[in-house]
Amino acid sequence: MAQAQPPMRTRVTEILGTDYPIVQGGMMWYGRAELAAAVSNAGGLGILTALTQPTPDDLAKEIRRAREMTDRPFGVNLTVLPSINPPPYAEYLEAALENGVRIIETAGSSPRTYLPRIKSVGAKVLHKCTSVRHALSAQNDGVDIVSIDGFECAGHPGEDHVGGLVLIPAAAAALSIPIIASGGIGDGRGLAAALMLGADGVNMGTRFCATAEAPVHSAIKEAMVAASERDTSVVFRSYRNSARVLTNEISRQVLTAEAGSAPFEEIRHLVSGARGKAVLESGEFDDALVWGGQVVGLINDVPTCADLIQRIVTECRERLRLGAEFAMPATDFAAG
């Protein structure tokens, strides 16, 4: 690994207590102790995904397991979605707070129901949004940081379909709290660009999936390395629940069904969470939806989290230095 870079200081690192403004977003099935601890040890913020664990008690055990691997800050993601039979969200939150977690990443529905409890123990809230209007609502509710997700991102990019180059500066202009740029970011160029667009840090999901510590089959990581920026698909648009996944046999079947106006019930068996989890364990890439963003086109290897973060910070600083040179008056630049 290259020599460790000095810490970077932004509003995000001050709030989160990290060395670098790099967050590993909560990801279903990926967000376990091995990955979260590795990211935190490398100076970023690792995040456990609450609903990856079968029960709140299992989440408590996973938090304790992560704490055995790192003494650095890490968070817990709680994604709240409308459901006929919802998980016990409040119990998952209690498991996190009672076990000393003081950074909660929320996503899906507004976190306002849970904010009083989170704030009562002095925990910080990072809420994921896909639009400026939702980000403003979250700010008004009292979250500490907004993660603004562009259309390039894996998972659910919302229904506005606005890319990060527009969405990030629009959010930065509208909000007074710090924002984290998410979607399409996987290297130091992306971090430098996000900072220049007004963000205080970045959230990376897909890029951290293709690391040595990510707890998934190597064949899935290899598929990400092999993919280009054109190898993702947006499914579920016809159901007003757009989701970006890697293009494979299942995503093609889903798109074909949607083109024929098939009701969701006809494809439910293809897109179940259990099926997705099994694929990440088996490595059979074409057997289920595999979540991934357009940033796969920038993924060329499977480094450790430590090597990846040091590479990103080094490249970011170099890009910012070059940018400062380009911004010099022509006479000064010519004089060199």
Task: Explain what the structure shows.
There is one protein chain. The longest helix has 22 residues, at 305-326. 41% of the residues lie in helices and 14% in strands. α3 runs parallel beside α4 (89-98) and α8 (188-196) crosses α13. It has an eight-stranded parallel β-sheet with strand order 1-8-7-6-5-4-3-2. α3 (56-69) links the parallel β2 and β3. With 336 residues, it is of the alpha/beta class. The protein contains 14 helices and ten strands. The model has no long low-confidence stretch (mean pLDDT 94). The chain folds into two domains: 11-216, Aldolase class I (TIM Barrel), CATH 3.20.20; 218-287, no CATH class.
Supply the key terms.
single chain; 336 residues; TIM Barrel; 8-stranded parallel beta sheet; 41% helix
Residue runs with pLDDT of under 50 for 5 or more positions: none
Q: Strands across the major sheet, in which order?
A: 1-8-7-6-5-4-3-2
Q: Can you say what the CATH homologous superfamily of the largest domain is?
A: Aldolase class I
Helicity level, as a percent range? 40-55%
The tally of strands reads 10
3D shape: globular
Percentage of residues in strands: 5-15%
SS content category: alpha/beta
Please tell me the overall pLDDT: 94
Span from first to last CA?
Answer: 32 Å
**Total discrete domains:** 2
Q: Give helix and strand order, one letter per element, not per position.
A: HEHEHEHEHEHEHEHEHHEEHHHH
Indicate the CATH topology of the largest domain: TIM Barrel
Q: What CATH architecture of the largest domain do you see?
A: Alpha-Beta Barrel
Gyration radius from CA atoms, angstroms: 19 Å
Query: The biggest beta sheet, please?
Result: 8 strands, parallel
Number of helices: 14
- CATH class annotation of the largest domain: Alpha Beta
